[in-house]
Backbone:
Protein backbone atom coordinates (compact mmCIF):
# COMPACT_ATOMS: atom_id res chain seq x y z
CA UNK A 1 0.00 0.00 0.00
CA UNK A 2 2.84 2.42 0.87
CA UNK A 3 6.40 2.22 -0.38
CA UNK A 4 8.92 4.84 0.64
CA UNK A 5 12.46 4.97 -0.61
CA UNK A 6 15.22 7.46 0.17
CA UNK A 7 12.66 10.04 1.23
CA UNK A 8 13.97 13.41 2.28
CA UNK A 9 11.84 16.30 3.47
CA UNK A 10 12.69 19.66 5.01
CA UNK A 11 10.39 22.49 6.03
CA UNK A 12 11.21 25.75 4.26
CA UNK A 13 11.52 27.47 7.61
CA UNK A 14 13.41 26.00 10.59
CA UNK A 15 15.96 23.21 10.82
CA UNK A 16 13.62 20.27 10.98
CA UNK A 17 14.25 17.61 8.36
CA UNK A 18 12.93 14.10 7.86
CA UNK A 19 14.82 11.30 6.18
CA UNK A 20 13.29 7.87 5.59
CA UNK A 21 15.56 5.38 3.78
CA UNK A 22 13.01 2.62 3.29
CA UNK A 23 9.49 1.95 4.55
CA UNK A 24 6.87 -0.44 3.26
CA UNK A 25 3.37 -0.90 4.62
CA UNK A 26 1.29 -3.70 3.15
CA UNK A 27 -2.34 -3.62 2.10
CA UNK A 28 -4.63 -4.44 5.03
CA UNK A 29 -1.86 -3.88 7.55
CA UNK A 30 -2.55 -1.90 10.73
CA UNK A 31 0.44 0.17 11.79
CA UNK A 32 1.03 2.38 14.81
CA UNK A 33 3.69 5.09 14.65
CA UNK A 34 5.08 6.19 17.99
CA UNK A 35 7.86 8.46 19.08
CA UNK A 36 8.54 11.72 20.84
CA UNK A 37 6.73 14.88 19.88
CA UNK A 38 8.44 16.66 17.02
CA UNK A 39 10.03 13.49 15.69
CA UNK A 40 8.18 13.73 12.37
CA UNK A 41 5.29 11.29 12.72
CA UNK A 42 2.62 13.76 11.57
CA UNK A 43 4.94 15.04 8.84
CA UNK A 44 5.32 11.50 7.52
CA UNK A 45 1.53 11.09 7.49
CA UNK A 46 1.29 14.34 5.52
CA UNK A 47 3.83 13.06 3.02
CA UNK A 48 1.97 9.76 2.66
CA UNK A 49 -1.24 11.72 2.05
CA UNK A 50 0.36 14.08 -0.46
CA UNK A 51 -0.41 17.08 1.73
CA UNK A 52 3.32 17.78 1.60
CA UNK A 53 5.79 16.73 -1.06
CA UNK A 54 9.30 15.40 -0.41
CA UNK A 55 12.42 17.25 -1.42
CA UNK A 56 13.75 14.00 -2.83
CA UNK A 57 13.08 10.28 -2.84
CA UNK A 58 10.03 8.24 -3.79
CA UNK A 59 6.77 7.77 -2.02
CA UNK A 60 4.15 5.52 -3.56
CA UNK A 61 0.77 5.40 -1.89
CA UNK A 62 -1.84 2.93 -3.16
CA UNK A 63 0.26 2.45 -6.26
CA UNK A 64 0.52 6.13 -7.09
CA UNK A 65 3.76 8.11 -7.00
CA UNK A 66 2.27 10.95 -4.95
CA UNK A 67 5.32 13.17 -5.34
CA UNK A 68 4.88 13.39 -9.09
CA UNK A 69 1.26 14.52 -8.97
CA UNK A 70 0.41 18.18 -9.28
CA UNK A 71 -1.61 20.00 -6.61
CA UNK A 72 -4.99 19.20 -8.14
CA UNK A 73 -3.98 15.59 -8.73
CA UNK A 74 -2.84 15.17 -5.14
CA UNK A 75 -6.08 16.60 -3.76
CA UNK A 76 -8.21 14.36 -5.98
CA UNK A 77 -6.06 11.37 -5.09
CA UNK A 78 -6.35 12.15 -1.39
CA UNK A 79 -10.09 12.59 -1.29
CA UNK A 80 -10.69 9.37 -3.23
CA UNK A 81 -8.04 7.17 -1.66
CA UNK A 82 -7.33 8.32 1.86
CA UNK A 83 -9.52 8.73 4.91
CA UNK A 84 -7.99 11.24 7.30
CA UNK A 85 -8.77 11.34 11.02
CA UNK A 86 -7.44 14.14 13.22
CA UNK A 87 -6.86 14.45 16.94
CA UNK A 88 -8.99 17.64 17.12
CA UNK A 89 -11.72 16.08 14.95
CA UNK A 90 -11.82 19.19 12.72
CA UNK A 91 -15.56 19.17 12.27
CA UNK A 92 -17.28 22.25 10.86
CA UNK A 93 -19.38 23.72 13.65
CA UNK A 94 -21.95 25.25 11.30
CA UNK A 95 -22.83 21.88 9.78
CA UNK A 96 -25.03 19.14 11.11
CA UNK A 97 -23.65 15.67 11.83
CA UNK A 98 -24.89 14.39 8.46
CA UNK A 99 -23.45 17.34 6.55
CA UNK A 100 -20.10 16.88 8.30
CA UNK A 101 -20.04 13.22 7.29
CA UNK A 102 -20.95 14.15 3.70
CA UNK A 103 -18.37 16.97 3.58
CA UNK A 104 -15.78 15.26 1.31
CA UNK A 105 -18.46 14.77 -1.32
CA UNK A 106 -19.39 18.45 -1.25
CA UNK A 107 -15.92 19.97 -1.48
CA UNK A 108 -14.50 18.09 -4.42
CA UNK A 109 -15.75 17.27 -7.90
CA UNK A 110 -13.75 14.00 -7.65
CA UNK A 111 -16.56 12.53 -5.54
CA UNK A 112 -20.21 12.52 -6.55
CA UNK A 113 -22.90 12.96 -3.93
CA UNK A 114 -26.02 10.92 -4.60
CA UNK A 115 -28.74 9.07 -2.71
CA UNK A 116 -26.54 5.99 -2.22
CA UNK A 117 -23.87 8.07 -0.53
CA UNK A 118 -26.45 9.69 1.72
CA UNK A 119 -27.77 6.27 2.68
CA UNK A 120 -24.28 5.07 3.42
CA UNK A 121 -23.60 8.14 5.55
CA UNK A 122 -26.70 7.46 7.63
CA UNK A 123 -25.80 3.79 7.84
CA UNK A 124 -22.25 4.57 9.03
CA UNK A 125 -23.59 7.01 11.60
CA UNK A 126 -25.98 4.33 12.83
CA UNK A 127 -23.15 1.80 13.07
CA UNK A 128 -21.05 4.08 15.28
CA UNK A 129 -24.00 5.02 17.51
CA UNK A 130 -24.83 8.53 16.34
CA UNK A 131 -27.64 7.64 13.96
CA UNK A 132 -30.13 9.56 16.06
CA UNK A 133 -28.06 12.76 15.97
CA UNK A 134 -27.78 13.32 12.24
CA UNK A 135 -29.45 16.74 12.37
CA UNK A 136 -27.60 17.95 15.43
CA UNK A 137 -24.90 20.59 15.05
CA UNK A 138 -21.40 19.31 15.62
CA UNK A 139 -20.68 21.67 18.50
CA UNK A 140 -23.53 20.09 20.50
CA UNK A 141 -21.85 16.66 20.54
CA UNK A 142 -19.60 15.11 23.18
CA UNK A 143 -15.91 14.57 22.40
CA UNK A 144 -16.46 10.87 21.70
CA UNK A 145 -19.39 11.61 19.41
CA UNK A 146 -17.37 14.23 17.55
CA UNK A 147 -14.60 11.76 16.83
CA UNK A 148 -17.11 9.19 15.65
CA UNK A 149 -18.48 11.78 13.21
CA UNK A 150 -14.92 12.46 12.04
CA UNK A 151 -14.33 8.73 11.54
CA UNK A 152 -17.57 8.42 9.53
CA UNK A 153 -16.39 11.32 7.35
CA UNK A 154 -13.09 9.54 6.76
CA UNK A 155 -14.71 6.22 5.89
CA UNK A 156 -17.56 7.45 3.70
CA UNK A 157 -15.68 7.30 0.39
CA UNK A 158 -14.54 3.70 1.22
CA UNK A 159 -10.84 4.63 1.13
CA UNK A 160 -8.27 1.81 0.92
CA UNK A 161 -6.01 3.76 3.31
CA UNK A 162 -6.81 5.38 6.67
CA UNK A 163 -4.30 7.85 8.08
CA UNK A 164 -5.15 8.77 11.65
CA UNK A 165 -3.19 11.37 13.62
CA UNK A 166 -3.69 10.64 17.31
CA UNK A 167 -7.38 9.84 16.80
CA UNK A 168 -7.87 8.89 20.46
CA UNK A 169 -5.74 11.63 21.99
CA UNK A 170 -8.72 13.61 23.27
CA UNK A 171 -10.95 10.70 24.26
CA UNK A 172 -11.76 8.91 27.49
CA UNK A 173 -10.93 5.16 27.69
CA UNK A 174 -14.42 4.00 26.67
CA UNK A 175 -14.54 6.25 23.62
CA UNK A 176 -10.93 5.35 22.76
CA UNK A 177 -11.87 1.72 22.45
CA UNK A 178 -15.04 2.53 20.59
CA UNK A 179 -13.31 4.67 17.98
CA UNK A 180 -10.48 2.19 17.51
CA UNK A 181 -12.99 -0.65 17.16
CA UNK A 182 -14.66 1.26 14.33
CA UNK A 183 -11.37 1.86 12.55
CA UNK A 184 -10.14 -1.72 12.98
CA UNK A 185 -13.50 -3.19 11.93
CA UNK A 186 -13.41 -1.10 8.78
CA UNK A 187 -9.79 -2.02 8.02
CA UNK A 188 -10.57 -5.69 8.51
CA UNK A 189 -13.82 -5.75 6.54
CA UNK A 190 -12.49 -3.63 3.66
CA UNK A 191 -8.92 -4.89 3.61
CA UNK A 192 -7.92 -1.30 4.15
CA UNK A 193 -4.59 -0.18 5.55
CA UNK A 194 -4.62 1.75 8.82
CA UNK A 195 -1.69 3.96 9.79
CA UNK A 196 -2.09 5.65 13.15
CA UNK A 197 0.09 8.09 15.02
CA UNK A 198 -0.33 7.59 18.75
CA UNK A 199 1.27 8.31 22.09
CA UNK A 200 -0.88 5.78 23.89
CA UNK A 201 1.25 2.66 24.36
CA UNK A 202 -1.70 0.72 25.82
CA UNK A 203 -3.18 0.56 22.37
CA UNK A 204 -0.12 -0.77 20.55
CA UNK A 205 -0.92 -4.44 21.00
CA UNK A 206 -3.95 -4.00 18.77
CA UNK A 207 -1.77 -3.11 15.74
CA UNK A 208 -0.02 -5.51 13.41
CA UNK A 209 3.14 -3.45 13.55
CA UNK A 210 4.58 -0.60 15.54
CA UNK A 211 7.08 1.84 14.10
CA UNK A 212 9.00 3.59 16.84
CA UNK A 213 10.78 6.67 15.55
CA UNK A 214 13.34 6.39 18.39
CA UNK A 215 14.68 3.16 16.86
CA UNK A 216 15.87 5.08 13.88
CA UNK A 217 17.96 7.38 16.01
CA UNK A 218 19.68 4.26 17.29
CA UNK A 219 20.43 3.21 13.76
CA UNK A 220 22.44 6.41 13.46
CA UNK A 221 20.62 7.48 10.41
CA UNK A 222 19.66 10.87 11.74
CA UNK A 223 22.27 13.54 11.09
CA UNK A 224 23.64 15.01 14.27
CA UNK A 225 23.20 18.55 15.51
CA UNK A 226 19.63 19.01 14.35
CA UNK A 227 16.22 17.53 15.05
CA UNK A 228 16.51 15.50 11.90
CA UNK A 229 14.57 12.28 12.12
CA UNK A 230 14.83 9.16 10.11
CA UNK A 231 12.41 6.26 9.84
CA UNK A 232 12.80 2.88 8.24
CA UNK A 233 10.87 -0.29 7.72
CA UNK B 1 -21.42 24.66 -7.37
CA UNK B 2 -24.69 23.52 -5.80
CA UNK B 3 -22.84 21.75 -2.97
CA UNK B 4 -20.55 24.70 -2.31
CA UNK B 5 -23.48 27.10 -2.28
CA UNK B 6 -25.22 24.79 0.16
CA UNK B 7 -22.22 24.83 2.51
CA UNK B 8 -21.93 28.58 2.13
CA UNK B 9 -25.59 29.00 2.96
CA UNK B 10 -25.24 26.78 6.03
CA UNK B 11 -22.36 28.97 7.22
CA UNK B 12 -24.32 32.20 6.76
CA UNK B 13 -27.44 30.69 8.35
CA UNK B 14 -25.46 29.43 11.35
CA UNK B 15 -23.90 32.88 11.88
CA UNK B 16 -27.20 34.56 11.17
CA UNK B 17 -26.83 37.54 13.49
CA UNK B 18 -23.42 38.47 12.16
CA UNK B 19 -24.61 37.89 8.59
CA UNK B 20 -27.74 39.98 9.13
CA UNK B 21 -25.69 42.88 10.49
CA UNK B 22 -23.28 42.70 7.57
CA UNK B 23 -26.12 42.46 5.05
CA UNK B 24 -27.89 45.43 6.67
CA UNK B 25 -24.65 47.42 6.51
CA UNK B 26 -24.13 46.69 2.82
CA UNK B 27 -27.79 47.43 2.09
CA UNK B 28 -27.59 50.81 3.77
CA UNK B 29 -24.22 51.63 2.22
CA UNK B 30 -25.70 51.14 -1.24
CA UNK B 31 -29.25 52.30 -0.64
CA UNK B 32 -28.75 55.52 1.31
CA UNK B 33 -27.01 57.60 -1.38
CA UNK B 34 -28.90 55.99 -4.27
CA UNK B 35 -32.31 56.11 -2.57
CA UNK B 36 -31.74 59.69 -1.43
CA UNK B 37 -30.88 60.67 -4.97
CA UNK B 38 -34.05 59.01 -6.28
CA UNK B 39 -36.17 60.74 -3.63
CA UNK B 40 -34.64 64.15 -4.23
CA UNK B 41 -35.03 63.79 -7.99
CA UNK B 42 -38.66 62.77 -7.61
CA UNK B 43 -39.32 65.57 -5.12
CA UNK B 44 -37.81 68.01 -7.58
CA UNK B 45 -40.04 66.64 -10.34
CA UNK B 46 -43.10 66.93 -8.12
CA UNK B 47 -42.29 70.50 -7.20
CA UNK B 48 -41.34 71.64 -10.66
CA UNK B 49 -44.25 69.99 -12.48
CA UNK B 50 -46.79 72.19 -10.66
CA UNK B 51 -44.58 75.23 -10.98
CA UNK B 52 -44.10 74.62 -14.69
CA UNK B 53 -47.87 74.33 -15.10
CA UNK B 54 -48.33 77.81 -13.61
CA UNK B 55 -47.13 80.49 -16.03
CA UNK B 56 -47.05 83.68 -13.93
CA UNK B 57 -47.87 84.66 -10.38
CA UNK B 58 -48.54 88.18 -9.23
CA UNK B 59 -48.58 89.25 -5.62
CA UNK B 60 -47.51 91.97 -3.23
CA UNK B 61 -43.83 92.86 -3.07
CA UNK B 62 -42.04 90.44 -0.82
CA UNK B 63 -40.53 87.02 -0.98
CA UNK B 64 -41.05 85.38 -4.39
CA UNK B 65 -40.60 81.99 -2.74
CA UNK B 66 -43.36 82.61 -0.20
CA UNK B 67 -45.62 83.81 -2.99
CA UNK B 68 -44.94 80.66 -5.02
CA UNK B 69 -45.26 78.26 -2.07
CA UNK B 70 -48.48 79.90 -0.89
CA UNK B 71 -50.08 80.00 -4.32
CA UNK B 72 -48.91 76.64 -5.66
CA UNK B 73 -48.85 74.45 -2.57
CA UNK B 74 -51.05 76.53 -0.20
CA UNK B 75 -48.19 76.13 2.23
CA UNK B 76 -46.38 79.24 3.41
CA UNK B 77 -48.16 82.01 5.26
CA UNK B 78 -48.22 85.12 3.12
CA UNK B 79 -48.35 88.32 5.18
CA UNK B 80 -48.11 90.77 2.32
CA UNK B 81 -51.32 90.95 0.31
CA UNK B 82 -52.34 92.62 -2.87
CA UNK B 83 -55.83 93.68 -3.88
CA UNK B 84 -58.43 92.35 -6.24
CA UNK B 85 -57.78 95.43 -8.38
CA UNK B 86 -54.62 93.71 -9.66
CA UNK B 87 -56.68 90.85 -11.02
CA UNK B 88 -58.97 93.35 -12.73
CA UNK B 89 -55.92 95.17 -14.09
CA UNK B 90 -54.52 92.00 -15.65
CA UNK B 91 -57.86 91.09 -17.13
CA UNK B 92 -58.24 94.61 -18.53
CA UNK B 93 -54.74 94.48 -20.03
CA UNK B 94 -55.96 91.90 -22.54
CA UNK B 95 -52.64 90.10 -22.15
CA UNK B 96 -53.69 87.31 -19.80
CA UNK B 97 -56.52 85.66 -17.97
CA UNK B 98 -56.45 86.51 -14.28
CA UNK B 99 -57.28 83.91 -11.64
CA UNK B 100 -57.31 85.52 -8.20
CA UNK B 101 -56.31 83.48 -5.17
CA UNK B 102 -56.92 84.20 -1.53
CA UNK B 103 -55.13 81.58 0.56
CA UNK B 104 -55.21 82.71 4.14
CA UNK B 105 -57.78 80.79 6.16
CA UNK B 106 -57.91 77.19 7.21
CA UNK B 107 -60.51 74.63 8.09
CA UNK B 108 -58.77 72.61 10.80
CA UNK B 109 -55.33 72.30 9.24
CA UNK B 110 -56.54 72.33 5.63
CA UNK B 111 -56.17 75.45 3.50
CA UNK B 112 -59.27 77.34 2.39
CA UNK B 113 -58.63 78.58 -1.13
CA UNK B 114 -60.76 81.47 -2.25
CA UNK B 115 -60.78 81.71 -6.04
CA UNK B 116 -62.99 81.73 -9.11
CA UNK B 117 -64.31 78.91 -11.30
CA UNK B 118 -61.48 79.65 -13.76
CA UNK B 119 -59.10 78.02 -11.32
CA UNK B 120 -60.80 74.65 -11.72
CA UNK B 121 -60.70 74.91 -15.52
CA UNK B 122 -57.05 75.91 -15.47
CA UNK B 123 -55.98 73.08 -13.17
CA UNK B 124 -58.26 70.56 -14.88
CA UNK B 125 -60.08 69.79 -11.64
CA UNK B 126 -63.34 67.90 -12.09
CA UNK B 127 -66.17 67.34 -9.64
CA UNK B 128 -66.42 63.67 -8.74
CA UNK B 129 -69.42 63.97 -6.49
CA UNK B 130 -72.02 66.75 -6.15
CA UNK B 131 -71.59 70.00 -8.07
CA UNK B 132 -69.41 73.10 -8.36
CA UNK B 133 -69.69 76.10 -6.06
CA UNK B 134 -72.41 78.41 -7.31
CA UNK B 135 -73.43 80.80 -4.55
CA UNK B 136 -72.05 82.48 -1.45
CA UNK B 137 -71.28 80.16 1.46
CA UNK B 138 -70.68 77.02 -0.59
CA UNK B 139 -67.48 75.04 -0.85
CA UNK B 140 -66.07 72.06 -2.76
CA UNK B 141 -63.48 69.80 -1.22
CA UNK B 142 -60.39 68.19 -2.62
CA UNK B 143 -60.56 64.38 -2.53
CA UNK B 144 -58.25 64.04 0.45
CA UNK B 145 -59.78 66.99 2.28
CA UNK B 146 -63.18 65.27 2.06
CA UNK B 147 -61.67 62.15 3.61
CA UNK B 148 -59.86 64.05 6.33
CA UNK B 149 -62.87 66.15 7.23
CA UNK B 150 -65.15 63.15 6.95
CA UNK B 151 -67.77 65.00 4.97
CA UNK B 152 -69.14 65.37 1.46
CA UNK B 153 -71.98 67.02 -0.45
CA UNK B 154 -74.74 67.99 1.97
CA UNK B 155 -72.28 68.31 4.86
CA UNK B 156 -70.64 71.35 6.39
CA UNK B 157 -67.17 72.71 6.95
CA UNK B 158 -66.36 75.36 9.52
CA UNK B 159 -63.45 77.72 9.01
CA UNK B 160 -61.01 77.92 11.89
CA UNK B 161 -60.79 81.16 13.89
CA UNK B 162 -57.38 82.77 13.53
CA UNK B 163 -57.11 83.44 17.26
CA UNK B 164 -59.52 82.59 20.00
CA UNK B 165 -58.20 85.48 22.08
CA UNK B 166 -58.72 88.12 19.39
CA UNK B 167 -62.29 89.36 19.83
CA UNK B 168 -62.01 91.56 16.76
CA UNK B 169 -60.48 88.75 14.71
CA UNK B 170 -61.85 86.34 12.17
CA UNK B 171 -64.85 84.35 13.33
CA UNK B 172 -65.64 80.89 12.05
CA UNK B 173 -68.02 80.54 9.12
CA UNK B 174 -70.04 77.40 8.57
CA UNK B 175 -69.97 76.54 4.86
CA UNK B 176 -72.08 74.08 2.91
CA UNK B 177 -70.20 71.35 1.06
CA UNK B 178 -71.70 70.99 -2.41
CA UNK B 179 -69.10 68.86 -4.15
CA UNK B 180 -65.96 66.76 -3.91
CA UNK B 181 -63.28 66.93 -6.58
CA UNK B 182 -61.66 64.02 -8.37
CA UNK B 183 -58.25 63.11 -7.02
CA UNK B 184 -55.54 65.09 -8.78
CA UNK B 185 -52.45 63.99 -6.79
CA UNK B 186 -51.60 67.61 -6.17
CA UNK B 187 -51.98 70.09 -3.29
CA UNK B 188 -55.53 70.70 -4.59
CA UNK B 189 -56.49 67.36 -3.04
CA UNK B 190 -56.13 68.79 0.44
CA UNK B 191 -57.81 72.13 -0.18
CA UNK B 192 -61.25 73.50 0.66
CA UNK B 193 -62.29 75.67 -2.30
CA UNK B 194 -64.65 78.58 -1.87
CA UNK B 195 -65.66 81.51 -3.98
CA UNK B 196 -63.52 84.60 -3.43
CA UNK B 197 -66.49 86.40 -1.87
CA UNK B 198 -67.01 83.62 0.64
CA UNK B 199 -63.35 84.03 1.64
CA UNK B 200 -63.98 87.71 2.19
CA UNK B 201 -67.01 86.85 4.31
CA UNK B 202 -64.74 84.66 6.46
CA UNK B 203 -62.45 87.67 6.84
CA UNK B 204 -65.43 89.78 7.93
CA UNK B 205 -65.33 92.06 4.91
CA UNK B 206 -68.75 90.83 3.98
CA UNK B 207 -71.38 89.96 6.52
CA UNK B 208 -75.06 89.23 7.07
CA UNK B 209 -77.25 90.34 9.94
CA UNK B 210 -80.84 90.97 10.94
CA UNK B 211 -82.71 93.44 8.75
CA UNK B 212 -82.78 96.60 10.87
CA UNK B 213 -85.88 97.83 9.07
CA UNK B 214 -87.83 94.87 10.40
CA UNK B 215 -89.66 95.03 13.77
CA UNK B 216 -87.75 91.99 15.12
CA UNK B 217 -84.55 94.08 15.12
CA UNK B 218 -86.09 97.14 16.70
CA UNK B 219 -84.41 96.42 20.03
CA UNK B 220 -80.98 96.67 18.43
CA UNK B 221 -81.54 100.05 16.76
CA UNK B 222 -79.73 102.91 18.46
CA UNK B 223 -80.76 105.64 16.06
CA UNK B 224 -81.66 106.53 12.47
CA UNK B 225 -80.27 109.29 10.36
CA UNK B 226 -81.53 109.33 6.77
CA UNK B 227 -80.58 105.96 5.25
CA UNK B 228 -78.12 105.23 8.02
CA UNK B 229 -79.21 103.09 10.95
CA UNK B 230 -76.98 102.63 13.97
CA UNK B 231 -77.27 99.35 15.89
CA UNK B 232 -75.96 98.08 19.18
CA UNK B 233 -74.16 94.81 19.90
CA UNK B 234 -77.38 92.90 20.36
CA UNK B 235 -77.84 92.83 16.59
CA UNK B 236 -77.79 89.20 15.44
CA UNK B 237 -74.95 88.55 12.94
CA UNK B 238 -75.01 85.32 10.98
CA UNK B 239 -72.13 82.82 11.06
CA UNK B 240 -73.73 80.57 8.49
CA UNK B 241 -75.00 81.48 5.07
CA UNK B 242 -78.39 79.88 4.49
CA UNK B 243 -81.12 80.26 1.88
CA UNK B 244 -83.04 82.40 4.37
CA UNK B 245 -80.26 84.83 5.28
CA UNK B 246 -78.20 84.80 2.06
CA UNK B 247 -79.77 88.03 0.80
CA UNK B 248 -78.76 89.84 3.96
CA UNK B 249 -75.06 89.33 3.19
CA UNK B 250 -73.35 92.34 1.72
CA UNK B 251 -69.94 93.94 1.40
CA UNK B 252 -68.92 97.38 2.50
CA UNK B 253 -66.63 99.20 0.09
CA UNK B 254 -65.31 98.41 -3.37
CA UNK B 255 -64.47 94.78 -4.14
CA UNK B 256 -61.38 95.95 -6.01
CA UNK B 257 -59.92 97.11 -2.71
CA UNK B 258 -60.44 93.71 -1.09
CA UNK B 259 -57.37 91.60 -0.35
CA UNK B 260 -56.13 88.62 -2.26
CA UNK B 261 -52.82 86.79 -1.87
CA UNK B 262 -52.01 86.30 -5.53
CA UNK B 263 -53.20 86.44 -9.08
CA UNK B 264 -52.39 83.56 -11.38
CA UNK B 265 -51.89 85.17 -14.76
CA UNK B 266 -52.36 82.91 -17.76
CA UNK B 267 -51.01 84.81 -20.78
CA UNK B 268 -52.89 84.43 -24.02
CA UNK B 269 -49.58 83.76 -25.78
CA UNK B 270 -45.84 83.88 -25.14
CA UNK B 271 -45.48 87.46 -26.29
CA UNK B 272 -48.26 88.63 -23.96
CA UNK B 273 -46.48 86.88 -21.12
CA UNK B 274 -43.23 88.72 -21.83
CA UNK B 275 -45.04 92.08 -22.05
CA UNK B 276 -46.84 91.40 -18.80
CA UNK B 277 -43.59 90.52 -17.06
CA UNK B 278 -42.07 93.76 -18.29
CA UNK B 279 -44.92 95.86 -16.96
CA UNK B 280 -44.25 94.73 -13.42
CA UNK B 281 -40.49 95.07 -13.45
CA UNK B 282 -40.50 98.71 -12.28
CA UNK B 283 -39.31 99.27 -8.75
CA UNK B 284 -42.07 101.77 -8.06
CA UNK B 285 -44.64 99.02 -8.29
CA UNK B 286 -46.04 97.63 -5.06
CA UNK B 287 -46.47 94.28 -6.69
CA UNK B 288 -44.17 91.58 -8.02
CA UNK B 289 -44.73 89.17 -10.85
CA UNK B 290 -42.76 85.93 -10.86
CA UNK B 291 -42.38 82.84 -12.98
CA UNK B 292 -42.96 80.04 -10.45
CA UNK B 293 -40.77 77.68 -12.46
CA UNK B 294 -37.78 79.98 -11.94
CA UNK B 295 -38.52 80.49 -8.24
CA UNK B 296 -38.87 76.77 -7.55
CA UNK B 297 -35.76 75.99 -9.58
CA UNK B 298 -33.78 78.41 -7.43
CA UNK B 299 -35.19 76.68 -4.36
CA UNK B 300 -34.18 73.31 -5.79
CA UNK B 301 -30.68 74.56 -6.57
CA UNK B 302 -30.36 75.25 -2.85
CA UNK B 303 -31.84 71.84 -2.05
CA UNK B 304 -29.38 70.14 -4.41
CA UNK B 305 -26.48 71.99 -2.83
CA UNK B 306 -27.61 70.77 0.57
CA UNK B 307 -28.16 67.31 -0.89
CA UNK B 308 -24.59 67.18 -2.19
CA UNK B 309 -23.35 67.88 1.34
CA UNK B 310 -25.68 65.23 2.74
CA UNK B 311 -24.55 62.71 0.12
CA UNK B 312 -20.92 63.53 0.86
CA UNK B 313 -21.61 62.86 4.54
CA UNK B 314 -23.42 59.63 3.75
CA UNK B 315 -20.55 58.51 1.51
CA UNK B 316 -18.07 59.14 4.31
CA UNK B 317 -20.18 57.15 6.76
CA UNK B 318 -20.64 54.46 4.10
CA UNK B 319 -16.89 54.26 3.57
CA UNK B 320 -16.36 53.84 7.31
CA UNK B 321 -19.10 51.21 7.48
CA UNK B 322 -17.67 49.42 4.46
CA UNK B 323 -14.22 49.41 6.04
CA UNK B 324 -15.73 47.92 9.21
CA UNK B 325 -17.60 45.29 7.18
CA UNK B 326 -14.39 44.38 5.33
CA UNK B 327 -12.56 44.15 8.64
CA UNK B 328 -15.24 41.83 10.03
CA UNK B 329 -15.00 39.66 6.91
CA UNK B 330 -11.20 39.54 7.11
CA UNK B 331 -11.36 38.59 10.78
CA UNK B 332 -13.91 35.95 9.89
CA UNK B 333 -11.54 34.65 7.23
CA UNK B 334 -8.79 34.50 9.81
CA UNK B 335 -11.02 32.60 12.20
CA UNK B 336 -11.74 30.13 9.41
CA UNK B 337 -8.07 29.43 8.69
CA UNK B 338 -8.17 26.10 10.49
CA UNK B 339 -11.31 25.12 8.62
CA UNK B 340 -9.55 25.94 5.36
CA UNK B 341 -6.56 23.81 6.35
CA UNK B 342 -8.84 20.89 7.18
CA UNK B 343 -10.65 21.15 3.85
CA UNK B 344 -7.32 21.23 2.02
CA UNK B 345 -6.02 18.24 3.98
CA UNK B 346 -9.12 16.20 3.27
CA UNK B 347 -8.70 16.95 -0.44
CA UNK B 348 -11.16 19.77 -1.18
CA UNK B 349 -10.66 21.36 -4.57
CA UNK B 350 -8.97 24.74 -4.65
CA UNK B 351 -11.96 26.41 -6.34
CA UNK B 352 -14.56 25.00 -3.99
CA UNK B 353 -12.57 25.76 -0.86
CA UNK B 354 -11.85 29.30 -2.08
CA UNK B 355 -15.49 29.88 -2.95
CA UNK B 356 -16.63 28.41 0.34
CA UNK B 357 -14.48 30.71 2.44
CA UNK B 358 -15.29 33.72 0.28
CA UNK B 359 -18.94 32.78 0.24
CA UNK B 360 -19.73 34.80 3.32
CA UNK B 361 -18.55 37.98 1.62
CA UNK B 362 -20.19 36.96 -1.67
CA UNK B 363 -23.56 36.19 -0.07
CA UNK B 364 -23.44 39.31 2.11
CA UNK B 365 -22.61 41.52 -0.87
CA UNK B 366 -25.12 39.82 -3.21
CA UNK B 367 -27.99 39.79 -0.70
CA UNK B 368 -27.15 43.30 0.55
CA UNK B 369 -26.92 44.56 -3.04
CA UNK B 370 -30.18 42.85 -3.96
CA UNK B 371 -31.96 44.34 -0.95
CA UNK B 372 -30.60 47.78 -1.78
CA UNK B 373 -31.76 47.36 -5.39
CA UNK B 374 -35.18 46.26 -4.17
CA UNK B 375 -35.45 49.22 -1.81
CA UNK B 376 -34.35 51.56 -4.59
CA UNK B 377 -37.01 50.10 -6.89
CA UNK B 378 -39.63 50.49 -4.16
CA UNK B 379 -38.49 54.06 -3.63
CA UNK B 380 -38.70 54.67 -7.36
CA UNK B 381 -42.15 53.08 -7.53
CA UNK B 382 -43.73 54.49 -4.38
CA UNK B 383 -41.40 57.43 -3.66
CA UNK B 384 -43.51 59.91 -5.62
CA UNK B 385 -46.67 58.85 -3.77
CA UNK B 386 -44.82 59.24 -0.47
CA UNK B 387 -43.48 62.62 -1.51
CA UNK B 388 -46.96 63.71 -2.62
CA UNK B 389 -48.33 62.62 0.73
CA UNK B 390 -45.49 64.48 2.44
CA UNK B 391 -45.97 67.62 0.36
CA UNK B 392 -49.70 67.49 0.93
CA UNK B 393 -49.49 66.88 4.66
Residues:
Amino acid sequence: MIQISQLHFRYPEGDFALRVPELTIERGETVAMIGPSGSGKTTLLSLMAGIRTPASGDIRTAGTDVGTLDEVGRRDFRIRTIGLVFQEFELLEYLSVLDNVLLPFRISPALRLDATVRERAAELAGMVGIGDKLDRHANLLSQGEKQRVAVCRALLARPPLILADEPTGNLDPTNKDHVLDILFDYARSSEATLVTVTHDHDLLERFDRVIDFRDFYDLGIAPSGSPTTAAGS
Amino acid sequence: MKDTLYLAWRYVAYHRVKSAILIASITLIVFLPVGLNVLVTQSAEQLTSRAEATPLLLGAKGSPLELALNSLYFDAELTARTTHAEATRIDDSGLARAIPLYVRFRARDLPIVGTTLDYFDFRGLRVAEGRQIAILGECVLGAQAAKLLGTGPGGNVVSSPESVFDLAGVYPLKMNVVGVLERSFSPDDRAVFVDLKTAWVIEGLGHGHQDLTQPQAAGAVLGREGNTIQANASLVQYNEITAENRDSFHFHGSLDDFPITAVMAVPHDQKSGVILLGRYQGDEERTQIVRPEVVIRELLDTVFTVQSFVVAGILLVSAATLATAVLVLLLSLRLRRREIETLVKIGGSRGRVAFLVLSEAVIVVVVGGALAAGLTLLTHRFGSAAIRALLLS
In short: Helices of chain A lie at 41-49, 71-81, 97-106, 115-127, 143-155, 173-190, 213-218. The first strand of chain A starts at residue 2 and ends at 10. The beta strands of chain A are 2-10, 17-25, 30-34, 56-61, 64-65, 82-85, 161-165, 193-197, 209-212, 229-230.
